Amino acid sequence: MSAVLNKRNIIILFVLVSLVFPLITTNTYLIHVMTLAFIWMIGVYGLNLLAGYTGYLSLAHAGFFAIGAYGLGILTVKAHMSFWLAFVLSLLITGLLGLIVGLIALRSKEHFFAIYTLCLGYIIYLVIDKWESLTEGVRGLIGIPAPQGFGPIKFETEKSHYYLVLFFLLLVILVMYRIVHSLSGRSFIAIRNSEDLALTIGISTARNKLTVFVLSTLFAGLSGALYASFVRFIGPDIGNTAVIFDMLTYLIVGGIGTLTGPLIGTLLVIWLSQLLQDFQQYRMLIFGPLLTLLVIFYPRGIVGGVTDIYRKRMAKKEKQLAGKKDSYIQSDLGAKNQVKEG
């Protein structure tokens, strides 16, 4: 039941609610917020794949998100490419840069890796901010086109764009599910648990770490490209280091290293932020203590905490059943002995 609770039922419920959500509300603002939440989920899934399943915390994720967004923006606005060609090329550029960065960054481990990627993320932000001839600097890129339609299918309304982003999110969830439940996924988890032990049993840790790093940057680039096509305007702030900490908040609240954690964490934090808009200046005063308490009492997030509670209850019930079974066997043996003595 624990596995069903974490994976199948939550994902099925999420898909059903997501499909009918635009049909039960006429408020375009709510659809807009939900679409943004879906976009962030894709990026958080990439972060979760690397940090949650491999144990390497990359703080350059916001930078790769910005590369995907600016790749699409520059290729469509300045190079005048068609949308889908620019979309694919932006992902390829992000993945290629992720490969180059991974070859260097993954030579370090633990907090050194995190510090290195944090510096890299800030460098990406500075390049975007200062290279005005390419990125337009603080002015940002304006007029990024909406996705081109396919025949009668157009992506010009909030609702149609919502379903397009939902399609990519479901594709990412499917890919994540297949990865986690594959031999490669088990190799990633083995590296997270003990990299030295993984080496001794024949796992190519260097190749697996590079693979998962590139995949995580591709998810970030996909998220950034979808963001650029949805908002139609981007500035250097999307590569700011504050963005990666927002994504980390979504992941930690939902549950790092879980398949449904990014869904729950992102939805919960984004909608709470919307409800607390009147207290936006006190946002960190509200979320800071809550996040601290969550990390102390439920370090694996909401999904991990629910799973742990369920497992403890099941273990307690099994222990009680085993005790009752032992007492029944002892009483049965005692009765048989009494019959023999009689």
From TrEMBL:
Annotated InterPro entries: ABC_transp_permease (IPR001851), LivM-like (IPR043428)
Which species is this record about? Neobacillus rhizophilus
Task: Name the UniProt key words of this record, in alphabetical order.
Answer: Cell membrane, Membrane, Transmembrane, Transmembrane helix
Keyword Repeat on this protein?
no
- Per the record, the coiled-coil ranges are none
- Classify the protein's membrane topology as the record does: Multi-pass membrane protein
Q: Does the keyword Nucleus apply?
A: no
- One GO term describing the cellular component: plasma membrane
**Residue ranges of the TM segments:** 7-24, 30-50, 57-77, 83-105, 112-128, 162-180, 210-230, 250-272, 284-303
The name this protein goes by in its record? Branched-chain amino acid ABC transporter permease
Query: Where in or outside the cell?
Result: Cell membrane
Single GO MF descriptor? branched-chain amino acid transmembrane transporter activity
